[in-house]
Each structure stands twice: as structure tokens, then as C-alpha cells.
Amino acid sequence: MKKTNLPILLGIMLMVVSCSQEADVVEESNLLKEADNISNSKKVTEVADFYNIYLVNRSPSEQNFWCFLQDPEINTSGEVYANSSTHLIIAPNYPGVNYFTIPLQYVIGAGAGNQAVGLDTRIVSSDSRDTEIGDHWGIEYLLHQGPNIVNINKLPEAAIMLTSNPFDKIGFENQGWYSNMSFGIQSSSGYIGMTWSPDPNQTTIIVPKFTFYIATGDFQSNQLADFTTISSSAAEITQNDFGQGFDVTVTLTETGEWVVETGAPNEVIDIPVKP
Does the keyword Signal apply (predicted)? Predict the structure, then answer.
């Protein structure tokens, strides 16, 4: 049993580095080496198509459990915000089963509109694509139009790249048109990811790492949130916490603490859970 006072954000922890095409070559090379190391380690690690996160509320009151990605390491000129629509409201000591089923399926997205990317802004990508490790995507931002997404090529490294076109960001924004870029996971429970404002002619390198969190609070679906605020009351779920059955149970205790245990709750051990 692992006990932590951090609130539990659910997600795939990402290491993300954004760099312009003139960015430091050494930094980019180091990130791609890290991607290579992750790729080699995964060759000996069994993975599943779906991972189940069971939620138990032992607190005195009803709680809204939210799923977020852990804040990434990122080298970009702007802020990166948490973006999630995945949540469940659970009554105290509810006798049934509550869980998130998270697919091992990444999604990239892009959008544009009259809302600037910022705290408490509601952002939903106008176009998205399922993606996998090794994909390199090109995103074309246009004035008063939705962006175009095209697959450029396949990468040898265990990374995902997003490259924006050389659009006139300042000119667009002066006319009330704001671009956004996102990365995350789309599950049956909703979206879990992150959103930022892209710079022109920039390549963002994303190296996913498998780490989840869960939190409770008054968040709103697809309303951008601050990673620091979320993580101040969150608990971490790593890939090792799932064990061989690809299940983990997260309990909010009577005293407001979080307990993370490998496997499903005892009452559902013998019940197969289908995604």
C-alpha cells in the first residue's frame, strides 16, 4: 500500500520540449536520446491497450474526481495548461464500482477562435488526430479559419513532433484570432491532456511517460487549469502501481488522504471489467 497526501491527477505524464527550428541542437538531441532510452526500456515492459483506475470515496461528503495529466517539462515561450473533461461524481461510501478506463491512445489537436489560450478559458480542439509514438505532424494555422493537420513523416525516435507553419501570430491576434495546440488522451470518460498557444514555425517534441494523477475540486470540463494548483493536492499513479493486471485503486480516506493500491477493489476482483 502506498500512502500520499498529494491529490490524484490522472494522466500520462509527458516530457514536452518546444523548440524553434533555430533552437539549440544539443538540447533537441538530448531529448531524442531520452526518447530512444524510453523506447528501449518499453521493449521489455508489458503494456495493455486499456488501464483501469478504480475510485473509492470514504470521505464524509460527495466528491468530484478529476483526471489530469502531470505537468510536463517544456521549453516554450508561453504557458502550458491542464485540459480535462474526464471526471466522476461519487457519493461517500458508494457501494457500487466507479472507475476510469484509459486507453493507450494518444491524441493531438489544434484549434483557433476568438478565445485566447489562458487560465479558465474553455478550449476544445476543432480538429484532432489519433497519434502514436514516431508520428510527425504539420499544423497550418490560417486567419479566421480552422487549422489543417497533416502527417509529415515517421520518426525513428520514441517521440511525437508537432510543427506549426510560419503564420503571423501577432497579426492574427490583433484581429481577435487565437491559435491553440493540444496533446493528450481521448477516453470513453472524456479528454485528458494539455493545451498551449503555439509560436510560428515551431517544432514541439513530446516524449510520453506513463504516470497518472487524480484530483478532486471545482474544475470545469475543458476549462484550462493551472498545473501548480492541481499538483498541490494530487497523488501520483505510476505504471508500476497498476501491476500485472493493469488495475489500480485510488481511495480518498475519511481524513482526506489519498491511498493508492495495486489492483482492483476486493469486491470486483472476480468481475471482469470491459472497456
Answer: yes
Rounded to two decimals, the pTM is: 0.81
- E strands of the chain, at which residues? 2-4, 14-20, 50-57, 63-68, 80-84, 87-90, 99-103, 106-113, 127-131, 135-140, 148-154, 160-164, 178-187, 190-196, 202-208, 211-216, 235-238, 247-252, 258-262
Q: Which of 2, 28, 5 is nearest to 16 (CA)?
A: 28
> 53: which strand partners?
100, 248
CB 226 within 8 A of CB 207: no
Q: Tell me what pLDDT residue 36 has.
A: 58
Alpha helices in the chain (DSSP H): 25-42, 169-174, 227-231, 239-242
Measured between alpha carbons, how far is 36 from 21 in angstroms, rounded to an integer? 21
Taking a C-beta distance cutoff of 8 angstroms, is the pair 193, 212 a contact?
no
DSSP for 175-187 reads TT-EEEEEEEEEE
The C-alpha cell that represents 238 in the structure block: 505510476
Read off the C-alpha cell for 21. 527550428
For residue 66, the cross-strand partners are 87, 215
- Say which residue the cell 471526471 belongs to: 87
Spatial CB neighbours of 41, under 8 Å, sequence gap ≥ 6? none
79-100, pLDDT tens digit by residue?
Answer: 899 999 999 999 999 999 999 9
Q: Specify the residue for cell string 515561450.
A: 77
Distance (Å, rounded) from C-alpha 52 to C-alpha 261?
A: 12
Instruction: Give per-residue pLDDT as tens, 115-157.
Output: 999 999 999 888 999 999 899 999 999 999 999 999 999 987 7
Read off the C-alpha cell for 255. Answer: 481524513
